[in-house]
Write a structure and sequence with these properties.
single chain, alpha/beta, seven-stranded mixed β-sheet, three-stranded antiparallel β-sheet, binds pyridoxal-5'-phosphate
């Protein structure tokens, strides 16, 4: 075993060690086929099995009914910024968007290519430090759909529950950085998408869960590769999918089930979050970015009293085996990402280091 490093990366991020070990073996030879996973045809029997097992495990995890399609696409969650309005927003309609961070901004930028985009709530004025509540939300009169980012990876904020949508509309959710971190009622959504590289697997594959009736007939002519309908019909292999990504996502799904499913994930994630937040609440050296009522259970954002100390913090942390703690340039400071596969010992090690660092630099802080 190489030296122990806790990987706090926001994505691609750490994966369960048992999944990595299984993948190591399956790269050489999967299912005793004499051929490794990287070398199997996406049309062959072995990959048929992988496709079906991955889909079945996903459905089992979230109890996804048959009225929903489960498939995967390429182009990252970022491509969903235009797939969504292209497939779901008629030219003469309005879609409502929650503006809660950088990824929401990216979606908001693409929607007007297809129809009208209405920002129904925004926390931009306070540097996206919170999730707007119902009192701050003003829907348009008849939105085609309501789009929200369930967890704002850069800001460290997360919706506690789904926003209530106006009658006749449905929710579209970018769940890239918190999918399957806690139980989810899929039937509250029209469409959910999630880039795999945070909670589900390797980069380069995006999970899509969509109500079948909503994607059956796009409101405009679209290139085939942009049609949800086609990717759903073809089990995510209209063209050659990232086969290793499908395989690994399937392994992560099986790991989630073996660990006890989404209630178990939530329990572990709450424990990890409590380690960090109870410390943050007990001190006044570090300055948290997210408002208390909007804190994320996946990404933890905080600052030292000065940018110089932030830089020193991340450097010294790295030397201790606490890796990738620099915050995104948008808000600076630090960001610790602790997705499903991140071990609780990492949260404890981080807080130990934070305490020590704060003691050493408390004098600078009080200035
Ligand atoms: C990481 C992330 C994305 C972007 O994913 P790509 O795969 O890089 O396109 C989009 N939305 C959220 C919430 C993310 O965390």
């Amino acid at each position: 075993m190489s030296k122990r490093v806790f990987n706090f990366s926001a994505g691609p991020a750490c994966l369960p060690p048992s999944v990595i070990r299984q993948a190591q073996a399956d790269i050489v030879d999967i299912f005793d086929s004499g051929i490794g996973i990287l070398e199997h045809s996406h049309r062959g029997k072995v990959f048929d099995r992988i496709t079906h097992e991955t889909e079945a495990a996903c459905r089992q995890i979230a109890n996804i009914p048959d009225t929903y399609a489960v498939f995967w696409m390429q182009g990252g969650a970022t491509s969903q910024c235009y797939f969504v309005p292209a497939n779901l927003l008629p030219a003469d309609r309005t879609a409502d968007y929650f503006e809660t961070g950088k990824w929401a901004e990216d979606s908001i930028a693409e929607a007007p290519l297809y129809g009208t985009c209405h920002i129904c709530a925004s926390s931009k004025a306070s540097k996206y430090d919170h999730i707007p509540g119902p009192a701050e939300t003003k829907y348009s009169s008849n939105p085609a759909y309501v789009h929200f980012t369930a967890n704002n990876t850069i800001m460290g904020t997360e919706f506690r529950s789904e926003p209530a949508v106006p009658a006749g509309s449905f929710l579209v959710c970018d769940a890239s950085s918190n999918i399957f971190s806690r139980p989810i009622d899929v039937t509250k959504y029209g469409l959910i998408y999630a880039g795999a590289q945070k909670n589900l697997g390797p980069a380069g594959i995006t999970l899509v869960i969509a109500r079948k009736d909503l994607i059956a007939s796009p409101p405009r002519a679209l290139p085939k590769m942009m049609q949800y309908r086609l990717h759903a019909e073809k089990e995510g292999r209209y063209n050659t999918p990232p086969t290793f990504g499908v395989y690994l996502m399937g392994q992560v799904f099986k790991w989630i089930l073996a660990e006890g499913g989404l209630t178990a994930m939530e329990e572990i994630n709450r424990e990890k979050a409590a380690v960090l937040y109870s410390f943050l609440d007990s001190q006044d050296f570090y300055i948290p970015h997210a408002r208390k009522d909007s804190r994320s259970m996946m990404n933890f954002t905080f600052k030292c009293p000065t940018p110089e100390l932030d830089a020193l913090f991340t450097k010294q942390a790295e030397a201790r085996g606490l890796d990738s703690l620099s915050g995104h340039r948008f808000i600076g400071g630090m960001r610790a990402s602790m997705y499903n596969a991140f071990p609780k010992e990492g949260a404890v090690a981080l807080v130990d280091f934070m305490k020590e660092f704060a003691r050493q630099h408390a004098a600078t802080a009080s200035r």
